[in-house]
Each structure stands twice: as C-alpha cells, then as structure tokens.
Design a protein that fits this description.
This protein has 124 residues and is of the alpha+beta class. Helix content is 27%, strand content 40%. The chain contains three helices and five strands; from the N terminus they run E-H-H-E-E-E-E-H. The strands form two sheets. The chain has a three-stranded antiparallel β-sheet with strand order 1-5-4, with helices on one face. The protein has a two-stranded antiparallel sheet with strand order 2-3. The N and C termini lie far apart (48 Å). The relative contact order is 0.27.
Length: 124
C-alpha cells in the first residue's frame, strides 16, 4: 500500500476573493484565456455554470499523474483574512510506490494558475 498524504499551500492574492470565485465557479470558461499555457479548455458536461452539482472538465498539461498516484484530489478554498485574501490549494493523494514522488508538481501548477489570475485581474 502506498503512502497517503496531503499537501497544502496558501497563496495571498492582491484582489478580492470574489473575483477568483467568479472565475473558478461561475465563469470557468474564461480561465483558459487567462492562463492558456496551463489550462487549455473547460467543458461543461452537466448542469449550469456557477451552480452546485454541475460537472465541469478542465483540460491541462502537468504530466501523467496516474503513473505516480493511485488517487489524487485537488481542492481550492478562497479565504478572506482581514485585509488580505488567501487561496488555499490542497492535494490529497495516495502514492503508488512509497519511494515515489510527492505531488509538488501539481501544487506548483496550482500556484501558477493563482498568480496568472492575479496578474490578469490587476492588469485588467
């Protein structure tokens, strides 16, 4: 049985978290335009954009994570903390091999998405 674990990172952003929520929840189809080197397309399969229980697929390039992990779940939370807002990414995983890599590559990828969205919003 592989090692189970959880990696988390918090990224402070220089804008209100509602903008981030809107892009990732209500308007996810805009994200590929903001960060095209990371997120290539976004497809709605069921439901409506911005609604609970909708099914959305994101197409991205990171590598074949299924070669290294039995399971990998990424979650995101936008947390207001007084004058700042934090985007918290969590990666819960089970490695195939105990000596295999940890999912730091996907965490770096998530940080990059956050920074691209921040840059886009600040420059808009």
């Amino acid at each position: 049985m592989g090692i189970r674990g959880k990696l988390e990172v918090e990224v402070e952003i220089k804008f209100d978290g509602d903008v981030f929520r809107q892009l990732s929840g209500q308007d996810p189809e805009l994200v590929p335009n903001i960060t095209p080197d990371k997120i290539h397309t976004c497809d709605l399969h069921e439901g409506e954009l911005g609604k609970l229980d909708s099914v959305i697929s994101w197409y991205y390039t990171v590598g074949d994570l299924l070669e290294e992990f039995k399971s990998l779940t990424i979650s995101i939370h936008v947390i207001p903390r007084g004058e700042i807002t934090v985007v918290k990414w969590s990666a819960e995983f089970e490695k195939i091999a105990d000596d295999g890599p940890y999912p730091t590559q996907i965490i770096d990828f998530c940080i990059g998405i956050t920074k691209d969205i921040e840059r886009h919003h600040i420059n808009a």
